[in-house]
Structures are given as C-alpha cells and as structure tokens.
C-alpha cells in the first residue's frame, strides 16, 4: 500500500513543472527547506532571529516599524520578562485605615497587590504593588460585627478550636484583622503567599517605609468610609 | 509506540517517570492527552487573559469591560480582544481614544433608575 501511495503521488507531482522538485519528497506536498523565501506573495516577510515565524507586515506599512530584526511584538500576546516585575521598581502605596469599612478596604488593597488594576496584568506573575496600611486598629465595621464577627482558628488537635470576636482580636493583635481580610481576597497558593508579603500593616500612624516614597492609594469605592 | 520514542517524550519528567518504561509509558500517554486537551484550552485561556487586561485598562478610565465592548460594537469597531489588549498595554493614547469612542456610543446604565428599596415604610 505504501508503494502504491508513492507511485501515485510522484505521478501527481511530475505534472507540475513550477514546483521545485529538488526538495520535494514523494509524501509531502511542500518543500522541506524552511529558510527559503516564504510563500507569501503580498507581504514581504522579514526573517526574525530566534523565532520561526516572521512578522508579516505589508510592504506599504513597513515605514512605520523601525525595529524589524527583534522579536514579533505585534502578533504575539505580551508576557512579562523578569525585568518587567523587579520588586525594587514596583510602586508603593500607603492608606490610612481610620474609619474605613474593613471589607471594602481589603478589596481595594487586594486588587492593587495582585496587579489587577494594571493593563499589563498577568495571573501567573506578580505584577502588583506594595501597600502599607497605617492606623489599622481604627478600622471600622458596620452593623453589630464589632461584637458578633467571629475569628476562628484551629490548632489541628481535637478540641483545639479557638474563637474570638472582632473586639477581642482588635485588643490583642489589631494588625491581624486587616491581614486576615486581605489574605482571604488574595489567591491561595505559592504566588498568593508571595503577594501577601507585599502587604505591610501597622497599628500606629507612622510606618518605617519612608524611603520607598509611598503615594496615596487611589480608592474608587464611594462607600468605603463609615458614615457616622 | 516503541520505548525509544517514549523516553524521548518523557524528558524532564519527575522521578522514575523519565527512566522506567512502565511508568514512563503511562505518564507519556497522559502528557499527550493533556497536550491534546490544552491545545483547545489555550485558545480559551488566551482570550480570558485578553479580556482581563482590557478590563483593567478600561477601568482606569471608569469604564468596565462590558460597557466598553458594547460601545465598540455599537460603533461597529471590529478590533478583536487580542489587539485591544495589546493596544491597552503599548499604545495608551490610542486606547484612551477608543475608550472615549465607546463612552460616547454607550455611556453606561446610569440612565436606568435603580429600583428604590422600600423599607418599613411599606407597612405604613
């Protein structure tokens, strides 16, 4: 059967005088030499190093592009390189938590830490910013959550469940309230744990990150401040 | 397929899966199944990545993705999501122009009055 295929295809190709018969194999219909001139007639393609597919730019538009020897940025979706997310170049934001609703503030912080506000967002890469929260002990909650919201943790042993109210936890470790809220809104996994380290929460009004020149965190939520 | 081909495909696998034929054959079969499935999934994943990036880019200007796309379709702008996401990253001024076009075509749902919440006044 293989022999019959060879004879039939070779007879087919012998009738086409234009094809370059030197490189043609009996089974494949096209020439195997990749580096020869591409078969596109209307577009003049440029061979780009370290990439098989050249950037196809119509000959009338080539004057718009100066760098045609680099990688093809116009047809491939951009993916950040290591230099695009160095921790030292990331912006720092500071936000005062006084009288802000806990969940709404945590949501805004998580969006900025994750990088979802940037057009260059990539889910697998840490593109977000650093966020500093000051006055974390003055965070507000609506309704009766101050006395009724419960924070639970379990040590793993039987009977090892500890339950605390919002008020008790705020007296003990006030930073943990904001941290717990933001951690629940960040992705769970290795990347999420790395993102959580970009959140810095402080109880008082000052923070030790003055050298990073943090700017004010832009908040778009209109209902984030507790109405007295 | 024969063992040589299996071991070639099993390069980079963990533990015995790259060295021992019985385990390598199973893992290679699974890897080929995954690659078949993921060639189809890649198209979906890329589109969702483009949509996430466009969403982030438009929300900087106060427009969300849904209203943006609705405005573009109203103006019959047929740019696809891949191109829109690349424009939002690399050509910010052009993207702002697109957002303005979309906003004039479809300003959003603010014209629709939200239903008034009736509290206990209903009982009165």
UniProtKB/TrEMBL annotation, chain B:
Record carries keyword Amino-acid biosynthesis: no
Q: What does this protein do?
A: Binds directly to 23S ribosomal RNA and is necessary for the in vitro assembly process of the 50S ribosomal subunit. It is not involved in the protein synthesizing functions of that subunit.
Give the UniProt subcellular location, in the record's own words: Plastid
What is this protein's name? 50S ribosomal protein L20
Q: Which domain of life is it from?
A: Eukaryota
Can you cite an annotated GO cellular component?
ribosome
Give GO MF terms, alphabetically. rRNA binding; structural constituent of ribosome
**Which organism does this sequence originate in?**
Erythranthe guttata
Q: Which family does it belong to?
A: Belongs to the bacterial ribosomal protein bL20 family.
Quote the HAMAP family the UniProt record gives: Ribosomal_bL20
Q: What CDD domains does its record include?
A: Ribosomal_L20 (cd07026)
A Gene Ontology biological process noted in the UniProt record is: translation
């Amino acid at each position: 059967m293989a022999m019959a295929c060879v004879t039939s295809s070779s007879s087919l190709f012998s009738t086409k005088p234009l094809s370059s018969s030197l490189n043609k194999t009996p089974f494949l219909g096209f020439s195997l030499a990749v580096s020869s001139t591409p078969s596109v007639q209307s577009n003049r393609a440029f061979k780009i190093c370290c990439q098989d597919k050249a950037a196809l730019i119509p000959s009338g538009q080539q004057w718009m592009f100066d760098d045609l020897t680099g990688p093809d940025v116009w047809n491939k979706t951009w993916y950040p390189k290591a230099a695009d997310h160095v921790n030292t170049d990331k912006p720092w934001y500071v936000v005062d938590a006084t009288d802000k609703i806990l969940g709404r503030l945590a949501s805004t912080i998580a969006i900025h830490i994750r990088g979802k506000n940037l057009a260059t967002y990539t889910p697998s890469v840490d593109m977000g910013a650093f966020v500093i929260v000051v006055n974390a002990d003055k965070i507000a909650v609506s309704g009766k959550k101050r006395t009724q919201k419960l924070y639970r943790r379990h040590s793993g042993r039987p009977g090892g469940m500890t339950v605390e109210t919002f008020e008790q936890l705020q007296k003990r470790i006030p930073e943990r309230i904001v941290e717990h809220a933001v951690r629940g809104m960040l992705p769970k996994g290795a990347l999420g744990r790395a993102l959580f380290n970009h959140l810095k929460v402080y109880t008082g009004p000052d923070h030790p990150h003055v050298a990073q020149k943090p700017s004010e965190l832009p908040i778009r939520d209109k209902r984030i401040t507790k109405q007295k | 397929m024969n063992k040589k081909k299996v071991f070639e495909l099993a390069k980079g696998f963990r533990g015995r899966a790259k060295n021992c034929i019985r385990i390598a054959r199973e893992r290679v079969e699974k890897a080929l199944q995954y690659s078949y499935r993921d060639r189809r999934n890649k198209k979906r994943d890329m589109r969702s990545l483009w949509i996430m990036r466009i969403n982030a880019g438009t929300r900087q200007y106060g427009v969300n993705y849904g209203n943006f796309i609705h405005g573009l379709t109203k103006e019959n702008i047929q740019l696809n999501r891949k191109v829109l996401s690349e424009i939002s990253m690399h050509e910010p001024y052009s993207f702002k122009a697109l957002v303005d076009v979309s906003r004039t075509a479809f300003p959003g749902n603010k014209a629709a009055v939200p239903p008034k919440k009736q509290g206990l006044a209903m009982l009165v």
